[in-house]
Design goal:
Number of domains: 1
Strand order of the largest sheet: 1-3-2-4-9-8-5-6-7
Bound molecules: manganese (II) ion
Number of helices: 10
Shape: globular
Mean pLDDT: 95
Helix content: 25-40%
Length: 317
């Protein structure tokens, strides 16, 4: 049995309480950084995106000016006067000689968060980050609808022999029994997918929604296509957004999703059913401009929590 003890928290996200031992986690919402994934080459073992979790935490004072401040996105304070506890569990430690070790630790960490009854909010890392999270969602014993925000399809079987890399998360999700319908929103330009991956996604029945369709129809119309009353997991690749909103990505793709569309999606999903958790990945902080990428990432998290509080997600003692 591997002991999962994340690295200590220095700056916590959204002024949350630090938790450096997942076995004692007592919170409704748990933040966890998963900085490292499964690299395609040695240079990517510690990628630019590995610095994402701490960069988002450090933007806390610009994500929200204080937990007692009125916020117009959510119509009040973050926790709305409710006794909701948020904990920051730090980062899952990397293991340079064997990515399977830290990925397994990441899965165990998320399982512990779910067992503790907390909503996991995960800071990546590249887009291999959600693969251990998807595995851990099995813990809940419920079918999950996967919502991915991304410019790219992420359906590669493997690259350089690595099957759990950043080009494969949705392919891996599609192979998991507890993952059902998949909505891929924000698609545009080209990424790792070739025609064969596009056809594999269609054969699965994945709902492929280009960013242009969101711009033409509005996000509310896209939301209407997602079944009501279900359990959702939201994985957000920063490059799903327009680079004018989130510039700090490796592959800027123009015509991406915009902030108001994301708020419509997040608030709409929370009201529709149960959002089990979310991740935000693929942020390369050294490419940021005026911290707007990490602030936007934090604002998505902030809006998810604010909406969930108001939908009475955390009413247990
Ligand atoms: Mn991606």
């Amino acid at each position: 049995m591997i002991t999962v003890r994340p690295s200590p928290v220095h700056d916590t996200l959204l002024f949350s309480q630090p938790c450096d031992d997942l076995d004692t986690l007592d919170a409704h919402i748990a933040f966890l950084g998963i900085p490292f994934g499964a690299a395609y080459d040695q240079f990517a073992v510690s990628s630019e995106q590995s610095k994402g979790p701490d960069a988002i935490r450090r933007a806390t004072d610009r994500i929200v000016r204080g937990l007692d401040h009125y916020d117009f996105d959510i119509g009040g304070t973050l926790l709305n006067g409710q006794p909701v506890r948020m904990a920051d569990c730090g980062n899952v430690a990397g293991h340079p000689s064997d990515p399977r070790i830290h990925q397994n630790n990441a899965e165990q960490a998320v399982r512990k968060i779910l067992k503790a009854g907390a909503m996991p909010i995960i800071l990546g890392g590249d887009h291999s980050t959600p693969i251990p999270i998807f595995k851990a969602l099995e813990e809940l014993g419920k079918p999950v609808i996967l919502i991915q925000i991304d410019a790219h399809l992420d359906w590669r079987k493997e690259i350089n022999g690595e099957v759990e890399g950043l080009s494969s998360p949705i392919r891996r999700a599609s192979e998991m029994a507890h993952i059902g319908e998949i909505f891929q929103i924000g698609l545009r330009a080209s990424g790792s997918a070739r025609t064969e991956e596009y056809e594999a996604a269609l054969a699965y029945g994945s709902h492929l929604i280009p960013a242009s369709e969101v711009h033409d129809q509005g996000m509310a119309a896209i939301l209407d296509r997602i079944p009501d009353g279900a359990n959702y997991y939201l994985t957000i690749d920063a490059d799903g957004m327009d680079p004018s909103l989130m510039p700090a990505v490796l592959g800027p793709a123009f015509g991406g999703l915009l902030y108001p569309q994301m708020l419509t999606l997040i608030h709409g999903l929370v009201k529709k059913g149960r959002v089990l958790g979310m991740d935000i990945v693929e942020i390369a902080p050294e490419r940021d401009q005026n911290r707007r990428t990490v602030i936007a990432a934090g604002r998505f998290i902030f809006n998810l929590i604010g909406a969930a509080v108001r939908a009475n997600y955390f009413n247990r003692a």
